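anyone seen this seq b4? input:
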Amino acid sequence: NPTAQPAAPYYDGATKTKDDNCTLAGKWTLVYTDAPDITGLDTSRVPFNKNVIEWKRPEWARNLPFSGSDESRVLQKVVTSASATPEKPRIVNLKVAGLEVEAKSSENTSSDVTSRIQKDGLIAGLLSMNPIDLKGPLNPPFGQFEVLYLDDDLRIIKTYQNYFAVNQRIKEGEEWF
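predicted toks r here
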């Protein structure tokens, strides 16, 4: 492992320095997992997830009123907070910090709710104007993982349920959420 303390960004009072080459902080794409809650979603392909649940209009709903266009998207993000200690520098504890639901729709910038609903669909049209951001004082445990490997572009973790995940860092400017 290129770094002896991969969870250092999540220690109490930690601050980021310019010398932080290998850090867990940032946006990551899941490229492989053996976790059944992810692999069970679609067994016809290699497990692939982008840490965000994305809803796209199904083909069968194409002709339904207010179902949006092929570009309409609704993103659901589970927001987590992380903590770690120097005594266990490879262990990261996660808590649920909130939930965000937003629309990623066509280039519709109209401030008129009716035209947004007609173009992007009922749910995406409403969410494009009024995204949901739920954060509060209750932060229940979400899980724990151990960092097995971390470098600038790749991380490999083992969850507290003994499943593995391989993530690739999303480079700045290539983010899609």
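The two ends are 29 Å apart (CA to CA). Confidence is low (pLDDT under 50) at residues 41-51. kinda curious what u guys think
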